[in-house]
Amino acid sequence: MYMFKDLDPLLHQQLRLSIMSLLMSVKEAEFTFIREKTGASAGNLSVQINKLAEADYIKVQKTFRDNYPLTTCAVTDKGKHSFESYVKSLQEYLKPGV
Amino acid sequence: MKELSKEESLSIITSMIEATKKDLQDNGSWYLLWGWLVFIACAIHYSLMKVGYEHPYYAWILMPVGGVISVVKGIREEKQQRVKTFVDDFMRYVLIAFLVCMLMVLFNSGVLKLTTYPLLMMVYGVWLFLSGGALSFRPLLIGGIINWALAVIGFYVGFETQLLLLAAAVMFGYIVPGYMLRSRYNKASRENVTSFA
């Protein structure tokens, strides 16, 4: 019998999942772009980005552009692998007849 | 906090990927800029030749003008770009290869003589075909093939006809796909309303 894997709690949260889904389809994205696409508040987004960065799912780069701070995020290999496993588990859960 | 259902998770993933994809679409501005510049230069060159003007090639002064506009536009877009994709990286290399080949043809036109324009159309074709593949946009692929076909014809005709062929090449390779890209982009922008709390 197939045993369901527990869904990764780090990814199974609305905003963190949104961030990861967005970053999976690009090479890197700026904080403002992620905020616009997710519609999240800057504070909440920072907290969730930090959680993903602490788990090494994404890497965050802080630089400056025209004297303004610029935060860029990109998915790491570990993040990519975790996201793929998460999607695979989801598909198993949602398989008809299971 | 409300527990996320499996269906909601899948829906978040799909809509975020969709929202990003729409945002990354090319608006066709580069194709339109260069398409119209080359088309107008061809038309002026041809008209000046027909009226017997001594230096009809002055029409190509539009190219350095386009170069300056491109540098300014490129710098501005680079600053405004908030997201980078792997396709962007690939296209940067394609653009460099395209420019190198195009300049090689242009700077050696003294030796290449009547094969200059057909060779240019050949290089345009490579650029358009690769762009079409990378952007998954069929009109650019077709534009590339049309450029190659016109290049072959160009090897067998005189300079005047070559000018007309070049104008047709940029019309079908750049201008028409450019407007189609713009229309796709505008349509996607109107639909691009996705938000999560």
Helical fraction of chain A: 40-55%
* Number of helical elements of chain A: 4
Tally of helical segments of chain B: 8
Structural class of chain B: mainly alpha
- How many strands appear in the DSSP assignment of chain B? 1
Which regions of chain A are unreliable across 5 or more consecutive residues at pLDDT < 50?
A: none
Number of β-strand runs of chain A: 3
Strand content of chain B: under 5%
What does the average pLDDT of chain B come to? Answer: 92
Shape of chain A: elongated
Query: Structural class from helices and strands of chain A?
Result: alpha+beta
* Largest sheet: number of strands, sense, barrel closure of chain B: none
Quaternary structure? heterodimer
State the end-to-end CA separation of chain B: 12 Å
Q: What percentage of the residues of chain A does DSSP assign to strands (E)?
A: 15-25%
Helix fraction bin of chain B: over 70%
Main sheet summary of chain A: 3 strands, antiparallel
Question: What order do the helices and strands come in, and which of them pair?
Answer:
The complex is a heterodimer of chains A (98) and B (197).
Chain A: H1 14-24, E1 28-30, H2 31-38, H3 42-54, E2 58-65, E3 68-75, H4 77-94
Antiparallel strand pairs in A: 1-3, 2-3
Chain B: H1 6-23, H2 29-50, H3 62-80, E1 83-84, H4 86-107, H5 109-112, H6 116-134, H7 138-154, H8 159-191
Helix pairs in contact in B: 2-3, 2-8, 4-6, 6-7, 6-8, 7-8
Describe the model:
- The complex is a heterodimer of chains A (98) and B (197).
- Chain A is α+β, with helices and mostly antiparallel strands.
- Chain A is built from four helices and three strands.
- In chain A, strands 1-3-2 form a three-stranded antiparallel beta sheet.
- In chain A, a hairpin with a 2-residue loop joins strand 2 and strand 3.
- By secondary structure, chain B is mainly alpha-helical.
- Chain B contains eight helices and one strand, in the order αααβααααα.
- Chain B is elongated and about 80 Å long.
- The C terminus of chain B is likely disordered.
- At the A-B interface, helix 1, strand 1, helix 2 and helix 4 of A face helix 1, strand 1 and helix 4 of B.
